[in-house]
């Protein structure tokens, strides 16, 4: 019978010298026996998928609130799309696919209900109490809030997975995070796997928000003709299939856009690696960001990002729902802060100074529909 521990090491033997390897991990906050039949980062990935916060992503909005339609993307489908893109890039660059998948699947665990509108509203509510930032909240979920294990709070993930989840961090917060915050204070980079997950996130939501925008009727094909990246790939799709129309034409165009962005990301990053020649993970940390698009594609991606901000994210119908979402979050926070007896017992703090953060944890963990349900229970007379 083969040695299962040895097999787990062999799974990473093909990786580049600057990739993150399980055997070189900085470890977990609470020491555990080595996993059998899987690597440390496979274990992280599995814990994330089985977490309560991951399941909740199914009912948290991406752009459109959950009740607005069954076919729009949610935080869950978005996270799966990010993981797929990130694994493709990592595989081609001989980087750790399991780590990049774990980071991708966990990166949105701390998002509030109602997307960015919910986050902005909760941040305003928490401004006098340290603010609210969804990257830090994702870290709180995996370090503290998940309740699955008898030996520790959270999921006890590896340092490298937690580092990848924390994409942004103020210097003030970084000082409080110890080893995890050092790179923000010293100007160092995270692993290439973390850098890939970050870029894969942008590739996924920029392109799939086009699909959702068209499906909702908030974007038109005429508007998309403003975009060079759309015109190039639409013309390529029609050249291959001259009679193409409707949904098939849209999907053929978007899949070509995604493919171009992924291939360019691989090629530009490979060129950066060849130029800087890192020989280890530490040399990656001391280098400038190495995962990037080429100049031409980066320009097209920025044009797409600005187009979506102007025409989709600031569309009056999206703004109306964002306004409602902000009112719901603000009203919930205010009601709970005014009378903590309205909170479930586990969110009632013994120390009053901790109460605002516990309220933020409670609201951030809500799905869109649960937040609406709580609002109705508190403010609508005929609701139980």
UniProtKB/TrEMBL annotation:
Keywords: Hydrolase. GO terms for biological process: dGTP catabolic process. GO terms for molecular function: dGTPase activity. Signal peptide: none annotated. InterPro entries: dGTPase, dGTPase-like, dNTPase_2, HD/PDEase_dom, HD_domain, PHydrolase_assoc_dom. Residues 75-206 form the HD domain. Belongs to the dGTPase family. Type 2 subfamily. This is Deoxyguanosinetriphosphate triphosphohydrolase-like protein.
């Amino acid at each position: 019978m083969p040695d299962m521990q040895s097999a787990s090491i062999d799974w990473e033997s093909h990786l580049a010298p600057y990739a993150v390897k399980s055997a070189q991990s900085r470890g977990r906050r609470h020491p555990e026996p080595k996993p059998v039949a899987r690597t440390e980062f496979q274990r992280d990935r599995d814990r994330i998928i089985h977490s309560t916060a991951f399941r909740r992503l199914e009912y948290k909005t991406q752009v459109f609130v959950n009740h607005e339609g069954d076919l729009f993307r949610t935080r869950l489908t978005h996270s799966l799309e990010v993981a797929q893109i990130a694994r493709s890039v990592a595989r081609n660059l001989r980087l750790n696919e399991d780590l990049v998948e774990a980071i991708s699947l966990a990166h949105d665990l701390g998002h509030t209900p109602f997307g960015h509108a919910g986050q902005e509203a909760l941040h305003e509510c928490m401004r006098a109490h340290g603010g609210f930032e969804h990257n830090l909240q994702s870290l709180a979920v995996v370090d503290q809030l998940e309740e699955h294990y008898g030996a520790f709070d959270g999921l006890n993930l590896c340092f490298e997975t937690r580092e990848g989840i924390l994409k942004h961090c103020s210097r003030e917060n970084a000082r409080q995070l110890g080893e995890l915050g050092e790179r923000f204070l010293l100007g160092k980079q995270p692993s290439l796997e973390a850098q890939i997950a970050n870029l894969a996130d942008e590739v996924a939501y920029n392109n799939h928000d086009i699909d959702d925008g068209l499906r909702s009727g908030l974007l038109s094909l005429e508007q998309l003709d403003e975009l060079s990246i759309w015109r190039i790939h639409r013309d390529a799709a029609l050249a291959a299939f001259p009679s193409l129309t409707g949904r098939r034409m849209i999907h053929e165009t978007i899949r070509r856009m995604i493919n171009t962005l992924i291939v360019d990301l691989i090629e530009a990053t490979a060129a950066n690696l060849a130029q800087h020649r890192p020989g280890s993970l530490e040399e990656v940390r001391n280098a400038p960001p190495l995962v990037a698009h080429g100049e031409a594609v980066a320009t097209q991606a920025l044009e797409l990002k600005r187009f979506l901000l102007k025409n989709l994210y600031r569309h009056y119908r999206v703004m109306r729902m964002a306004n409602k979402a902000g009112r719901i979050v603000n009203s919930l926070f205010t009601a709970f802060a005014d009378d903590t007896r309205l909170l479930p017992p586990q969110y009632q703090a013994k120390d009053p100074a901790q109460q605002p953060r516990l309220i933020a944890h409670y609201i951030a963990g809500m799905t869109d529909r649960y937040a609406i349900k709580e609002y109705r229970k508190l403010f609508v007379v005929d609701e139980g």
